[in-house]
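Summary for the lay section of the report: proteins are chains of building blocks that fold into shapes. Here we show the chain for Propionyl-CoA synthetase and then a coded description of the shape we predicted for it.
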Amino acid sequence: MSLYSREYRRSIDQPEVFWAEQAKRLPWTTMPRTMLSYDDQGHARWYPDGELNLCHAALDHHVEQGRGDQAAVLWDSPVTGSRRRLSYVELRDRVARFAGALKGLGVEKGDRVIIYMPMVPEALIAMLACARLGAVHSVVFGGFAPHELAVRIEDAEPRVVVAASCGVEVDRVLPYKPIVDAAIEQSAYKPDACIVLQREQCRAELEARDHDWASLEAGAAPAACVPVKATDPLYVLYTSGTTGKPKGVVRDTGGYGVALHYSMEAIYDMAPGEVFFSASDVGWVVGHSYIVYGPLLRGCTTVVYEGKPVRTPDAGAFWRLIAEYRVKAFFTAPTAFRAIKKEDPDGTLLREYDVSSLKALFLAGERLDPPTFHWLEDLLEVPVIDHWWQTETGWPIAANLQGLEPMPVKAGSATVSVPGFDVRILDREGHDAPALEQGSVVIKQPLPPGCLTGIWRDPRRFHAAYMAAYPGYYLTGDAGYLDEDGYLFIMGRTDDVINVAGHRLSTGEMEEVVGGHPAVAECAVIGIHDALKGQVPVGLVIPKDGFDGSEVDLERELIARVRDIIGPVACFKQVLVVDRLPKTRSGKILRKLLRHMADGQEYGVPSTIDDPASLSDVHEAMKARSLGSADQARQR
Ligand code: COA
Ligand code: AMP
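The coded shape description reads as follows.
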């Protein structure tokens, strides 16, 4: 039996023994004696009698162990022309003082704090300061519009909002403060205070509720770490579901810390003192787990990058960072490499840098498409690892475990189940599907440490969304299959979630926004293939009877509406006006069929279709936009 197989079997057959060993790697204030218990709904609760503080485990502990002078954060911001190095001692001290500032504003254990910031070290400081106090942070990605922020403020009811005055994109400065003000205005719930990090690119006007970050931090006394129960929430991270209301994924503290620490070793093969670079954003789960908590819990150095894979200034940006900071493991989404490949197809810029420190490249967030995989494999001399996970699980479900036992890579596969995750493929009836047969990818309960423990204030939705479909199993929402060697192939979502440039978005939510326009009678939003972003949304709308405006204006208004309500991150840029939409006789829009039509794939017409002639309407509209032919992605 291979090393991996032995470890995997032990994690599934004796989960409590396995995770008891891993728990010893963290500095607890009270070591757990019970490893696993279940709540009244039958969901796993790891380490229920353990207590710790994750900020202590990520910072103070390393300082105590003699890592104080080592770099904790290396910030590199080509968009502002700045860099900064923060040692573990410096980061701990700034976090402690900022925690003191939050405390001064009344933030206590259990209170929520919303963080709306770009990729600056202060975003990490704010997160860790919350963890220090036992407060629950909720980071919102900067590409979301005021409405999305307002929805999260209403749901999380934060005592304080922490923001930056602006974000800086490739070619422009984006003021954040007006977005925060508009969101608070729209929200029925009002936070007590807003802390603003003033950036020189665009200073914000401060009002009565606002506090200047710098003066607050300068005047604050350092706060001590507050031990919390392992099962207490560390953060709530909102993610797209099938409806307009995002799901507040609740992450616990102890199980998450143990799982991340394990993953840093077993999956990423990282040792203390080594440099980890995850090119994502703190607004996403990748940022939470592998820019902030994972690397710091393991005593590594984390690279925090405020820039893009291309255009800041060129497609060699990642190679430069890897070379300059001697990065050992690098993690990003495949879309970033598709962008690089487009600008530098021969990898000429790579040759300008010494990337010999790099030992493995990890990709996730969307499927690693075989052309991108092969391009990278040919270019680099290190393993190119696709690994699969989601906001809900908080860490990889399937991977090629570089620190345990590297395995041969198969293009298109995320390799094997990570120890702790009992991954199964079920058919419609809930039976195990045979090898190579596609089905619903589920995880047999109990979920390992680190996975979501609920949906914020909505236990019914938690159950309905994840646990109800197949009792005893967690529904991932992905379809896929296992091959004869146990390699997992993830083939796409089974719900209305789409993946645009590695960002998870809900077409259901976009439909609600499009359908809310006064001229729209009915609509469907589908995700279609895009050569760069993986998928992009396209709207199909039926105008109301009597609509006499121009289609061009309607399209422009709908695009602006989605941008205003959801945000630029939605990438909603195309609307087709049609007379009819294909539906079943029971009135369900045939979205999958529309998707296949738009992607130029073969499609069968179901016998349940109500009006087969509706297909020619849609076909014409698609043809007019060059959708539906095999090379449409390139033409667009
Ligand atoms: N704050 C404000 N606006 C933001 C933003 C932020 N943090 N991030 C993105 N946006 C805006 C962009 O400016 C863009 O606006 P535009 O329509 O006015 O141009 C829009 O949101 C869409 O952004 P994006 O999808 O990122 O497109 P892009 O063309 O700017 O960049 C990639 C494309 C592929 C280079 C980029 O998406 C990327 O680097 N992706 C990496 C994947 C990643 O980080 N995934 C996270 C999970 S691993
Ligand atoms: P998020 O919650 O934003 O991380 O998105 C999670 C979803 O992205 C998953 O449910 C998958 O649909 C998709 N995804 C993430 N990583 C991969 C991968 N390596 N292969 C295929 N799909 C992926």
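Put simply, here is one thing we learned. Residues 239, 285, 364-368, 386-388, 390-391, 414, 476-478, 490, 493, 499, 504 surround adenosine monophosphate (ligand 2) (CB under 6 Å).
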